[in-house]
């Protein structure tokens, strides 16, 4: 997926819409035996690696599942607390598997384009102070047209929705659907036709 | 291609060098404050980029542009930061900044 995420920020700087589309290769599975090489801690309702790095698992990665059973924040599906579970050596059978994931956060500014070696962040600010932010692959082209298109979708499906109040989080199904299809078109062709 | 100005910071945030070639608008605050503001912005930008990045990164923040200028950033492993503001026609200043650092 060459477009990683889309964010919409209101005039006050609050996030009103977020859509993440990360590459699945951010997940890795690793088998551990006791004791764990990584130091874990609880951060933001997730169990996250705070120290220690091994084979693609780095600081900031969060636990997605243990032994194939998905975790639910701090607790496993069985209701046990993850950190307690991992401390007890009797819980480590001969093989032990953990999944991992990256966790992001939010920012904003008057910048139009921010470039790093891994992604390009494009920002479009409207006259009313709404900012549309797109995180994409550096090689992806046509993001300017995509930003204008997202603005159009926002005005068509969020602003014209009688139940949507300005500057509030966007919870309109049609907005989601049209945004996703616009992203798919952008990834495939990189340009838009005159009609929607 | 116009170069507006160049800043060099050490790892503690003090400005080691500043030169100006073609700056159209002054910041309206004293030079000292401007250096602190620039350094603070770079520091926040680097930590923002490292948190937002969907994949693990090697070099981190490279440059940003607004509708009027482009800011290029290069950091050495020792913590020396070189910052150059140019107009929008420049594509990649990284080698230039590396040459400036090595001479």
Describe the structure.
The complex is a heterodimer of chains A (196) and B (103). In chain A, 20% of the residues lie in helices and 30% in strands. In chain A, the strands form three sheets. In chain A, strands 2-1-12-11-10 form a five-stranded antiparallel β-sheet. Chain A has a five-stranded antiparallel β-sheet with strand order 3-9-6-7-8, with no helix packed on it. A two-stranded antiparallel sheet of chain A has the order 4-5. Mean pLDDT of chain A is 69; it is low at 76-80 and 82-109. In chain A, a hairpin with a 2-residue loop joins strand 4 (39-43) and strand 5. Chain A is an alpha+beta fold and 196 residues long. Chain B has a five-stranded antiparallel β-sheet, sandwiched between helices. Chain B is of the alpha+beta class and 103 residues long. Chain B has two helices and five strands; from the N terminus they run E-E-H-E-E-E-H. The chains are: A alpha+beta (196), B alpha+beta (103). Strand 10 of chain A pairs antiparallel with strand 3 of chain B.
